[in-house]
């Protein structure tokens, strides 16, 4: 979910993933209310974006969904923007992958 005014190149460490789709939302409404109001349908990636990736373009005012295979390596991962200034300003974002059958 990109709530800034421009596209960010987002990288997820240690894995590859595929883009499922992107869906636009009303950014002004979100900034006023904190709620998501979609402005169009989810759109699958263009053919040139349908392979395995480690970085994707996350456009402004869109939710980009990805799918990845983490097993058997559950635990802590990070993602971040690849724009150097954004990497430097603490945009290394952690997330935890769990196996609901084990963790
Ligand atoms: Cu960025």
Automatic annotation (TrEMBL):
Domain Plastocyanin-like: from-to ranges: 4-98
A Gene Ontology molecular function term for this protein is: oxidoreductase activity
What InterPro entries does the entry give? Cu-oxidase_C, Cu-oxidase_fam, Cupredoxin
Please, which domain of life does this record's source organism belong to? Bacteria
Protein family (similarity comment) = Belongs to the multicopper oxidase family.
Protein name per UniProt: Plastocyanin-like domain-containing protein
Q: Which organism is it from?
A: Lentibacillus populi
């Amino acid at each position: 979910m990109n709530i800034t005014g421009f596209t960010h190149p987002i990288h997820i460490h240690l894995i590859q993933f595929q883009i499922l789709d992107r869906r636009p939302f009303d950014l002004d409404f979100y900034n006023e209310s904190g709620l998501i109001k979609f402005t169009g349908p989810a759109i699958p990636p263009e053919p040139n974006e349908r392979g395995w990736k480690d970085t994707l373009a996350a456009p402004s005012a869109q939710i980009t969904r990805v799918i990845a295979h983490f097993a058997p390596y559950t635990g802590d991962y990070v993602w971040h923007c690849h724009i150097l200034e954004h990497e430097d300003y603490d945009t290394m974002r952690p997330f935890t992958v769990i196996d609901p059958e084990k963790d």
